[in-house]
Amino acid sequence: MSGNFLHRQPILRRPDGIGGALPALTLIALFFVVPVVALLLRSVTEPVPGLQNYAILFGEGTYARVFFNTFLVATVVTAVTAIVAFPVAWMLAIMPPALGSIVFGIIILSMWTNLLTRTYAWMVLLQRTGVINRTLMDIGLISEPLPLINNLTGVTIGMVYIMLPFMILPLVGTLRAIDPMTLRAAALCGASPFDAFRRILLPLSLPGIAAGGLMVFVMSLGYFVTPTLLGGTSNMMLAAMIAQMIQSLLNWGLGSAAAFILLLVTMALYALQLRLVGAKRMTGGI
C-alpha cells in the first residue's frame, strides 16, 4: 500500500485562465499583431506623418483602376470556380467510395505541384502558338490564334485551375451531408431534375459554396504570381502593385497603405461570413 503510494505518478493539471493560451497568444502577437501594427505605422508616417498615402490611393485614377481590376478578377475567378467545382464535387459525393478516393487523391495531388511550374505550363498552353490555339486551328474552329494570354481570360483560366481544390473540398463535405432521399422524394412528387437542383440541392449546398467562395475570393485578392505572368502589366492587381512599390520604387509608405487596405478588406469579408453563418445557425437555417 505504502509502496503504491510512493510510486504514484503526479497528476498533471491543465493551466487555468489565460496561462494555457499564453504561448499561442505570444506567437500571434509576434508574427501577426506586431507586423500589422508596423505596417499601419509606416502607412501613416512615411514619407511624412499623415493620411496622404491613403488619399493618393483613393484619389488617383491609376490606383483606383488597380483596385477595380483586383476585385473584378477575384469576383470572376470565384464565380467561374464555383460553376466548375460544383459538378466535380457532386460527382465525388455520389460515386463509389473507392473510385471517389482515387479522384479525390488526384485533386489533392495537384495542390502539391509547384505553383510557378503550373503557371508556366499554362503560359505554354495559352500562347498564340500553344497547344490550345493550334488544336482549335487544326480542327477548323478558328482561323487565327485567340488572345488567351496577357489579358483577363488568361488570368481567369490559370487562377481557376489553381483555386479549384479550395472550392471542391468544402463543397464535397456539404454535398455528402445531404440526404439522397430528399432528391428522390422531390422526383416522386413530380419535380424535374432542374427544379430539384434549383429548389433543393442548391439551397442545401449554399454553406459549402459560401465557405469555398470566401476562401477563393480572399486568396484571389492577394494573388501575385499567376496574374503577373498570365495577365501582364495591363491587368496589374493589388499584390503586384504593392511588390512594385516596395521592391522597385522603395515607396514603403504607399505600399504599406495598400497592403493595410487589402488586409482590412480580407478581415471584413471574413467577419461578414462569420456573422451570416452565425445568424443562420441561430435561426435554424441552412
From TrEMBL:
Compartments where located: Cell membrane
Keywords: Cell membrane, Membrane, Transmembrane, Transmembrane helix, Transport
CDD domains noted in UniProt: TM_PBP2 (cd06261)
InterPro entries, A to Z: MetI-like, MetI-like_sf
An example Gene Ontology CC term for this record: plasma membrane
Residue intervals passing through the bilayer: 21-41, 66-86, 98-116, 155-179, 200-225, 245-272
UniProt xrefs under PROSITE patterns: ABC_TM1
Topology class, membrane: Multi-pass membrane protein
ABC transmembrane type-1 domain sequence ranges: 67-273
One example of a Gene Ontology biological process annotation: transmembrane transport
Family: Belongs to the binding-protein-dependent transport system permease family. CysTW subfamily.
Full protein name: Putative spermidine/putrescine transport system permease protein
